[in-house]
Amino acid sequence: MKIDHINISAPLPLLEQVRAFYCQVFGLVENFRPKFSRKGYWLYAGDSPLVHLMESDHHHACDKQPYLDHVAFQLSGLNAVVASLKSLGVEYRLSYLPEIDMTQLFFKDPAGNGLEANFIGEKCTRSE
Predict the structure, then answer these.
(1) Is residue 125 part of a domain?
(2) Fewest beta carbons within 10 Å, which of 37, 52, 71, 122?
(3) Sorting pLDDT into bands at 50, 70 and 90, what band is 61?
């Protein structure tokens, strides 16, 4: 078993912000999406449509911490991601796990979804 994709449903103006965020921070690319009754985007990592975005006026921001805390992605290019987050003014928390030589970044997307970015064998060389 593997996770196939994540889906974020939000009003179109917020969805546009989310799309730009995931493309800039994670380097995802908008590509083919089948025709659905609602507008949206599929954001690809290579050949895989990893993040699905769908227009919805039925989904709303949560005023409390949701049960699903975050989604984690493993990628490379730690310093570039940190620079991207800083350029967007996104607050993040950095953690290093020496036992597995992995750096983690924790932050939120424009819709308030918790995200974790994991970098194996990379340490941040940018000043905090």
Answers:
(1) no
(2) 37
(3) confident
Domains identified in the chain, total number: 1
Structural domain including 43 reads 6-58+68-120
Find the mean pLDDT for residues 88-105: 96
Q: What is the pLDDT of residue 125?
A: 66
pLDDT of residue 124: 77
User: Is a pLDDT exceeding 70 seen at residue 127?
Assistant: no
Q: Is 39 within 8 Å of 83 (Cβ atoms)?
A: no
